[in-house]
Design the sequence.
């Protein structure tokens, strides 16, 4: 690589890294918090990811939730404890494996789905304003590639 190409790559990385590292995610989370509050909901974006999974598939193990939301066990335990305190989920012992609990939505957890999703859709509408379908396709492709590369690199080192 020529020195000029290395300099351009370094400048690009200086711009790209904060985005991939969470700057955009933090901004979206802030807006989600605000939109949840507007809907009268006292949940976090992290809690929403768990609830959203349960709205699609209720009664799953904590490990399934960990795997699908990329959270470690202690973080998931804390999330579920807080959701249980808010009466949005409950744990029920698995009949097939005494060591694991199945996580279910309460009636209150089911009832907030529409408001919570409205807040998320409003957030994403704002975040993606002015980006056409081709741009969205490129972003999805790029982020999928980055995620795939990181996942592969992590599994090689494990």
Sequence:
């Amino acid at each position: 690589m020529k020195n000029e190409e290395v300099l351009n790559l370094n400048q690009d990385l200086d711009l790209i890294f904060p985005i991939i590292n969470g700057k955009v995610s933090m901004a979206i989370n802030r807006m989600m918090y605000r939109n949840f509050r507007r809907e009268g909901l006292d949940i976090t974006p992290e809690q929403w990811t768990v609830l959203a999974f349960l709205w699609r598939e209720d009664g799953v193990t904590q490990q399934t939730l960990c795997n699908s939301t990329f959270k470690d066990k202690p973080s998931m335990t804390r999330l579920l404890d807080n959701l249980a305190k808010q009466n949005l989920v409950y744990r029920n012992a698995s009949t097939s494996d005494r060591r694991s609990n199945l996580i279910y939505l309460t009636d209150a957890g089911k009832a907030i789905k529409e408001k919570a999703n409205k807040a998320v859709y409003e957030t994403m509408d704002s975040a993606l304003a002015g980006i056409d379908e081709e741009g969205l396709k490129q972003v999805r492709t790029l982020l999928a590639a980055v995620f795939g590369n990181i996942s592969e690199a992590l599994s090689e080192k494990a």
User: Anything to note?
Assistant: The CA atoms of residues 29 and 45 lie 6 Å apart. DSSP finds seven helices and three strands in the chain. Strands lie at 60-61, 89-93, 101-105. The longest strand covers residues 89-93.
